[in-house]
Design a protein that fits this description.
Structural class: mainly alpha
CATH topology: Fumarate Reductase Cytochrome B subunit
Largest sheet: 3 strands, antiparallel
Oligomer: single chain
Order of helices and strands: EHHHHHHHHHEHHEH
CATH architecture: Up-down Bundle
CATH class: Mainly Alpha
Bound molecules: protoporphyrin IX containing FE
Length: about 280
């Protein structure tokens, strides 16, 4: 509690409450979808049989899968709604939102940062002067858009085959199963290895970065992590607007427990997939 109400200890607010809630719901829905989806995909393996018993049978696994899909669609459309609301209130036009300094779209600076980062890895250059979003954060963001479109549309086809086959030939269901299943494998593999490494396991953040849960980071971390964004806010005299009290230790402990559960489930699912692909693939 010693840091509370101490002006020196104020932290930078990186994520709004809504975005933190959406990310938590995304984690819960994605892990549920991956767990139940892989249980269906590798249903012939011993661990899938065990897991399906724990979940209440393969049919229940399918039902949990559908319920988690509704949460994921909810997260996606709430985010789109929030963007349109922020466009109206904060930016005034899509052009300003999409092409402003904090854009999520790739820019020439991202290419320079990417090359700069490779040099930094090799020890022949300084760490790039990252802004609000690094190029790998932008990549992860658009991967979700692509994933929701491909996995979501094929998932709906599997969910409501009678409706889709009114418009398309029956073979579409087989094609949708293959696309859904393989894209899901790719998404799961990517999130639980590349995304986990970039976000939590890189030496600067190891073993876990909780900023997406608390929304807060220390000023020291902010200056180091996103120097261009920090310098820009100081130059405009706007840093104070984003300074908030840190959370008490009990909140941080709770958040860490949630984070450890999510990381452990993610790593376990990855190990299961590798095992199934190497020793049991049919
Ligand atoms: C977000 C919208 C999604 C919808 C609407 C959806 C829907 C479905 C449906 C209806 C099935 C068939 C289930 C059954 O046979 O009972 C299925 C299977 C499956 N889903 Fe999803 N799903 C979605 C997202 C995901 C995600 C994010 C993943 C993984 C990360 C995933 C992985 C799988 C897998 C691996 C299967 C088994 C496919 C197979 O039999 O090879 N799904 N999904």
């Amino acid at each position: 509690m010693e840091t509370i109400n101490n002006p020196e200890a104020k932290e930078y607010l990186r994520f709004s409450r809504l975005n933190r809630i959406l990310h938590i719901l995304m984690i819960v829905s994605f892990i549920s979808l991956a767990l139940t989806g892989m249980t269906l995909k590798f249903s012939y393996t011993g661990w899938a049989v065990l897991l399906s018993h724990l979940l209440g049978g393969f049919e229940t696994a399918g039902n949990i899968h559908r319920a988690a899909a509704i949460i994921m669609f909810g997260v996606f459309f709430t985010h789109i709604y929030d963007l349109t609301r922020r466009k109206k209130r904060e930016f005034g036009s899509w052009k300003k939102l999409l092409f402003g300094p904090d854009t999520m779209l790739f820019t020439k600076k991202d290419l320079r940062d990417f090359i700069g980062n490779l040099k930094w890895f090799l020890g022949i250059g300084p760490r790039p002067n990252y802004g609000r979003w690094t190029y790998w954060e932008k990549f992860d963001y658009f991967a979700v858009f692509w994933g929701v479109f491909v996995i979501g549309s094929t998932g709906l086809t599997l969910w409501f085959p009678e409706i889709f086959t009114l418009m398309f030939p029956g073979e579409l269901i087989n094609v949708a199963t293959i696309i859904h299943s393989d894209e899901a494998l790719l998404a799961t593999g990517f999130i639980f290895t590349v995304h986990f490494f970039n976000t939590h396991l890189r030496p600067e953040k190891f073993p876990m970065d909780i900023v997406v849960f608390t929304g807060r980071m220390t000023l020291e971390e902010f200056k180091h992590d996103k120097p261009a964004e920090y310098e820009d806010l100081v130059k405009k005299g706007e840093l104070d607007k984003f300074l908030v009290e840190p959370y008490p230790p009990i909140v941080l402990r709770t958040v860490r427990v949630f984070g450890w559960i999510a990381l452990s489930l993610g790593f376990s699912i990855t190990v299961w997939i590798i095992y199934a692909m190497i020793f049991a693939y049919r």
